[in-house]
Amino acid sequence: MIEVKNISKTFGETKILKDVSYTINKGMTNLVIGQSGSGKSVFLKSLVGLHSVDTGEILFDGRDMTKMKSAELKQLREEIGMVFQGGALFTSSTVEDNVRFPLDMFTKFSKKEKQKRIDYCLEHVNIGHASNLFPSEISGGMQKRVAIARAIALNPKYLFCDEPNSGLDPVTAIVIDNLIQDLTRELNITTMVITHDMNSVMEIGEQIMFIHKGNKWWQGNKNEIFNTDNKELNDFVFASNLFKSIKQQR
After folding, report:
1. What is d(CA 67, CA 79) in angstroms, rounded to the nearest whole number?
2. C-alpha dist (Å) from residue 202 to 96, 205, 224
3. Residue 11 burial class via C-beta count within 10 angstroms: exposed 0-12, middle 13-18, buried 19 and up
4. H/E element holding 14?
5. Model confidence over 48-90: pLDDT tens digits?
6. Which residues, 6+ apart, have CB-to-CB distance to 101 below 8 Å?
7. Lowest-confidence range among 58-62, 109-113, 141-145, 230-234?
8. Taking the domains of the chain in order of start, what are their residue ranges?
9. Res 226 pLDDT > 90
10. Cα–Cα distance between 125 and 75 in angstroms, integer?
11. Model confidence at 246: pLDDT above 80
């Protein structure tokens, strides 16, 4: 579990996050949604240590990241898996070598142990057949699967996904959503997904926080989102005619 307590972040004279609190539960897909520029990406980067917050606490199973020294931070980062927007694969490395990278960096596994872990991760995302291919030789959806396999290579306690469906068609996006949810439950990890994709919200939104202009504006689940009277959330969620019609049918 990750407990975020009253964090704020300012760049220059602009306050991006304003006293935000959110509990990210273990074994659940926890979503953060909001318009571009709302602060959700800064929120994610604060949780993975890319930004230091001005005020507040970020507790990873009771350990406050904001008070950690460099050695403790290094250890915590080894417990975190990250799926970057766009995948961020090494284009000159094969699928297998992309997944091997964190194992080479952070473990003392033998060659045989690394191969066993690579095979396990690739099979779990159903892409073992493509282990010797390069990213340019596989589809966008397959690339996202490789990125997820790499993110779970170190058997992380925490998984962060930044717009994992970016650039994917709707059908493939649903497959990736379900994969993330299945891995979260199967591996019993603490997962947070940053997204603006309402299909993802409806598919896997077990717990959702809506950020509006740097504030935590609403929290609930994918069922409760249809019944809220929060104007800003409704404007965001039901911007498309599709979701307006779904709400009217309920």
Report:
1. 17
2. 33, 6, 11
3. exposed
4. strand 14-24
5. 988 999 999 999 999 999 999 989 998 898 899 999 887 789 9
6. 90, 93, 150
7. 230-234
8. 89-155
9. no
10. 26
11. no
pTM of the entire predicted model? 0.88
Q: Model confidence at 239, in pLDDT bands (50, 70, 90)? A: low
Residue 179 token pair: 């994969």
Look at residues 7, 34, 16 and name the one whose alpha carbon lies nearest to residue 208: 34
What distance lies between CA 125 and its chain's CA centroid? 16
Question: Among 174, 145, 193, 242, which Cα is nearest to 25's?
Answer: 193
Question: Edge-to-edge strand order for the sheet containing 215-220?
Answer: 80-83, 158-162, 190-194, 29-33, 207-212, 215-220
Crossing angle between the packed helical segments 95-106 and 140-151, to the nearest 10 degrees? 20
State the average pLDDT for the chain.
90
Q: What phi and psi values does residue 196 have, to the nearest 5 degrees?
A: -120, 10
Region label for 86, one of left (φ > 0), alpha (ψ between -120 and 50) or beta (otherwise): left
CA distance 43 to 200: 19
- d(CA 218, CA 145) in angstroms, rounded, equals 31
